[in-house]
Fold this protein.
Amino acid sequence: MAASNDPNAPLIFISAAEASSDAIAALVVRAWLSVNPDLKFCGVGGPELRKIPAFHCWQRAEEMRVMGFSELIGSFFRLRRIFDDLTSRLKSVRPQMGIVFDYPDFHLRLLKSVAEIQECTWIDAIPPKMWIWRERRAAKLHALVHGVVSLFEFEAAWLSRLGFNVISEGHPLRDRPAFIKSVEQVRRELNLETTMQLGPCIELAAFPGSRPSEIKLHAKLFSDAAELLAQESKKRVILSVPVPEIESLDQVKTLFRAGKNVEFRWFIGRSDEVLRAHRLGWIKSGTSTLEAVWAGCFPIIIYAVSKTTQWIFTHLIRYRGPVGLPNILLGIQLRTDSIFPELLGPEANAQNLVKTTLRQIQDRDGGVMAVQSFVAPLQEETTSVRIAQKLEDWRKKRPERQIFTRHRSRFRVGLASWAWSVLNRLVRLLRGELQPLRGLKTCLVGNLQAGGSGKSPIVAALVQLAARQKIPVAVVSRGYGRKNHKDVWSGPEASPNVDDLGDELTDLKQKFPNLLTIATRSRSKVLKQLEEKGFSGWVLLDDGFQSMNIKPNLTLLAVTPRQPTEVVYRDFFSAAKNADALVWVKGRGGPLAASALAQFEMEARHHPKILGPVVALLAVGDPVSVVQSMRDSGFQVQDALFLPDHSSISPRDIKVVVERARSLGATPVCTSKDASKLQDLGELVVIEQDLTIESSFSAFVLEKLG
């Protein structure tokens, strides 16, 4: 695409200092020029960006690449000179829009230094991974940018909950041509045998990284592991190594050591083709691990770091989850549960790498299945074009900053979880054994975490099951969010009042008018009253797992994969032994997954008034899961306003959501739980969520309750 000759053409600043971000930025810029060819670009770029005539390079990305804390210190003065030069240029030319890709330590400081350019719309594409260990940066970033471009759905939901304007259309690298070619075609283009060798020899893709320090660290590891693999397998080992265009092939070759039964194939660039041409690879942790699974190559994820970096990551950051993007996208909570093996720090040695490789060669079918879960259907319009179109919309009309919603620190949440759990354990010890209540058929639906576990949908599904069996039901609850703190009995056909019953019971009563609902602070007292009245149906206790002193006939525990450092827990995991069955409504994995009796899926019901995207108003325990449920059900959730669980909804809250929906050409929506608190919905459309009970679980409940 030729550069615009118009001196008044809109100027866009781009900064992409990493090899992967340079590739992504180049795809987006080319797509953007196809949307608006009159644009001009300037800034920091690597080889891919510099190939675009419309991009004027102020600074070569290669001079900014550093890895680890020790290398950063050694490059401080060089990076400072680059920083000052970029700041001066930006204040001089004052671009209409600025987009930074990745490299957070440098870019956050740059954004702060040029904040005075108020006419510029600042966007962070590939924002810092605050969802891993830098949540404290969220408020800082929110104040510096008008929006972010997120490459992953889970990250987009997380950022939306914080109050960021988010563009989330997928990952641009997914559109690369090599990923949709046949393996045989790619191997022919690389002058390889059309059939991959995992018999007489072992062929592997080997990605040591893109920075010189990364390549140096991993070259020795790959060489040692290849030689050991040849000895262990009694086969010839062939490693295909793509070398970044900005590196000297001769210099890289000197870092690797070929043995008697070890051969290296060298490629300048062509990393996509190398991944597509192999079924198995040694891949340095980063974007390449995700590209590998898109290409059909099973990655063994490796990250060798210096002892200093390893100590900081282990003792200061203390992150225990996976670092590989494929594992993160699969929702893995603990690195030990990773589907794609991760060898990090001291684990990244030749012995472990060979052992993991041989195990994966034996489990070839399992690897194929894991990789296939990432294959996405092709779309007529590429991801890059969709992102470019949204960026062009933001260039024409800057998005309004949303209210920032702060996350609680992991330490404080973990401390609160521990303290509350200890208190409940002491209560159980002092209370002693629960006494059965023989005159009623009782079922308690409780949870370990304080809200957001899907407890209320389970209660609603049980009410529906009882209705099908023509069994009378009474639901007893604290009535969270209500203003009347006395005991309130709402019988069949009685009009529900949210001030008397709270939002959950009111919502339930609106769905099942013949239901008997009771809001009380003393569940035990109400149970005895129901027994005295001779109630013959089911009594469903919504919550009370920690406070009941009467033994129900059936105790169901709603569990999720959330950890006690993410949300506040009222009990230790060991308390689950006090339940008759564990039930999952949202999420998968975690320490209790293997013990679950049933795993249900929430589905958002479609509404005839909704024909396009939506903006959601949510005052629920786990709004991110609700958004994900909507998206899984086919809704295009463009934005959301998250309020505390059970909180009241003000006219201002509704106005914010309605105006945001109008600006996006979307429909403002809310859940039925939140609608129960509103006398006038206005333009809000209510989206119902359904939970379908499996027949085996229904039989289990009927057997227990009769």
Notes: The chain is about 40% helix and 20% strand. Residues 326 and 609 are 37 Å apart (CA to CA).
